[in-house]
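In practice, a research group might receive sequence data for several interacting partners and want a quick structural hypothesis before committing to experiments. The following worked case mirrors that situation: the sequences arrive first, and a predicted assembly follows.
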Amino acid sequence: MVDAAADVTGLSLVEVARLIARRKLSSEEVTRACLVRIERYGGTLVAIAGCEPERALNQARAADAAIARRRPTGRGDASLLGVPLAHKDMFYRQGRVSACGSRIRAGFVPDRTAAPLERLDSAGALDIARLNMAEFALGVTGHNPVAGTPRNPWNPDFVTGGSSSGSGVAVAAGLAYGALGSDTGGSIRFPAACCGIVGMKTTYGRVSRFGAMPLSYSLDTIGPLTRTVTDNALMLSVIAGFDARDPATSRLEVPDYLATIEDGARGLRLGVPENHFLEPLTPEVRKLIEAAIEVFRRLGAEIVAVRVPDSIAVTNGMTTMITTTEGAALHARWMRERPGDYGRQTLGRLVAGALTPATTYIEALNRRPAVLAEFMAAVFEDADVLVTPVMMGPVPTIAESDVGANPGFAQTIFAMGHATRPFNYLGLPGLSVPMGFTGNGLPSSFQLVGRPFDEATLYRAARAYERETGYTGKTPDLSKLT
Amino acid sequence: MQNNDFMATKAWMRQFQDMAFDVEALVDPARAASRVGQAMRRLMPPLPFDDAPGRFTDALESFAPAALAGDRDDG
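A structural hypothesis for the assembly, expressed as tokens:
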């Protein structure tokens, strides 16, 4: 049977925005199509934390009315007017529950709206659902014993990646055209990679965290998950920029990401690491990433071997330590008063943070500018973009990576962040881009890393690769789920 | 020795963090943080004593293409 709802939900965000703006599609029919898929697949995929269909449809009708009056509220070419999005359940909206994947905040009603939601609202986007997530954004596999473990739309036996697990699932499965996630150690890039979509971990300070649940103020970043590179650039162009309410945000001007996105890879210097990031890599992921590098070579990029500083080896551990220490400080009251309301893995990681020597934590933070300077000199004097894997092996099954009750869970979590956490410590942007499928039928992705605030070059390179290979925009067959 | 580690960790959590958790589960995480500290000091030069670390966003901005080109918006 042909899935009628999939016809519209299979469009990209850019395509659907254009068709709505030209009144070839109404926001209401597009939103209805998404709601049908949420109803049909959202429960099986454990992707939805909350959805109010009537509220979503009212938003859609208001958008259609604005277009009919020829008074769209969007921002010129970047307009998202009438486009249904859904977001990780940690982006607060005033007066609406935001449970953060937890029991502790199950009834939490925030008094503010998150800055990225405000910006998406002003561009006319719809917010049709709250998406499931790892408990308090602490978890790389997507397991959540409290709110439920989301299932991968490519094969429900496999993990979605975390912590923005529902965001990865919802976008890949066509429940929404784009989603916000947060990334403190890989939490956008893992679900993007596991679900075969595009995920941007932005430069630290590029997107305001005001009104987003904090985990680690020193490391938290916010970014979009979408089905295509151009969709991602469009969403980031809306949410990026200075915000006085988040003192870490930069005043640097936000470039027009779409202006250079079709410029191709010719002339770009693609850095391929000689050490650390390609070890230990499973043979089939190595084969995929080598093939991706060959695509870039064919597209005219200059392939440059780079040696990353030896200090990179400890940045995974430093990121983990900073995250758990700052997390423990934020959660200390609940750890004292309600320890039984946490999942075991979350509590275990927070407890580890409560044991960090303060001097070690401060030393790790104080070293950041020097470690960044060393890395920039070693890598970005000879390269414009660095390529690494996102995950060092294929996507694991939910059963084999269910580490919540396993005494060795900390080591598993640590190993998974080998290629992602260093860039949270360094504050650099990292874009997860699908590069094909491994033998288990699950997607696999590489990561493009750039200079600070140079997301535009990452989009340019990724778009050239996407145009050549067509690995993005693929949708999983969900017919076996029902 | 092992017993001393347990007791010290338990004392730290109870007396200094006002938290009560299973003691045996705490010793490995405590050692993990120390191992990160040891590796950090082994792989990196000592921090300068007299220089304040500064705001990290400023450090990032100093390497941004736009900042290097002098294209700055202070609005």
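Before designing any experiment, note the following. Chain A touches chain B through 56 residues (CB under 8 Å). Residues 312-337 of chain A form the longest helix (26 residues).
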